[in-house]
């Protein structure tokens, strides 16, 4: 039950944009884009070296992209993030939506800045 609550809260955190008081710009500094040969997905940066996402997002030719998601920019900055390890829930199967969670360990830590930050998760 705690896992269900945790991941529901996490999905809400991903869905809610962050607003800067001084500019009104909407940013998602913890969001990464998962590009593959089939379908796009998103993930959430939860640590400088870890991304959490849905296990069904692990597809052929997966690339993890960080993009400057400031919506006022016409030419957003984009950077591919190499990864070294993927850990899917051991009970995940592609025929069920249960246990649909996965961790991705990035090859190197991302330097956190105002434009790149991890998602704040209550402890």
TrEMBL record:
Keywords: Disulfide bond, Hydrolase, Protease, Secreted, Serine protease, Signal. Its main location: secreted. Residues 1-15 form the signal peptide. It is found in: Secreted. It comes from the Eukaryota. Pfam families: Trypsin. GO terms for biological process: proteolysis. InterPro entries: Peptidase_S1_PA, Peptidase_S1_PA_chymotrypsin, Peptidase_S1A, Serine_Proteases_S1, Trypsin_dom, TRYPSIN_HIS. Residues 9-123 form the Peptidase S1 domain. SUPFAM superfamilies: Trypsin-like serine proteases. GO terms for molecular function: serine-type endopeptidase activity. The keyword Disulfide bond applies. GO terms for cellular component: extracellular space. PANTHER family: SRCR DOMAIN-CONTAINING PROTEIN, TRYPSIN-RELATED. This is Serine protease 58-like. It comes from Phascolarctos cinereus.
């Amino acid at each position: 039950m705690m896992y269900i609550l945790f991941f529901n809260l996490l999905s809400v955190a991903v869905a809610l944009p962050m607003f800067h008081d001084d500019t009104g710009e909407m940013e998602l500094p913890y969001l990464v884009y998962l590009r593959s040969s089939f379908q796009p997905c998103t993930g959430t940066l939860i640590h400088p070296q870890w991304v959490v996402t849905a296990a069904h997002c692990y597809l052929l030719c997966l690339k993890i992209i960080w993009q400057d998601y400031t919506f006022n920019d016409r030419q957003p900055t984009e950077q591919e993030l190499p990864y070294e390890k993927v850990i899917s829930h051991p009970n995940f199967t592609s025929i069920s939506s249960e246990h649909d969670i996965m961790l991705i360990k990035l090859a190197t830590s991302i330097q956190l800045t105002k434009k790149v930050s991890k998602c704040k998760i209550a402890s």
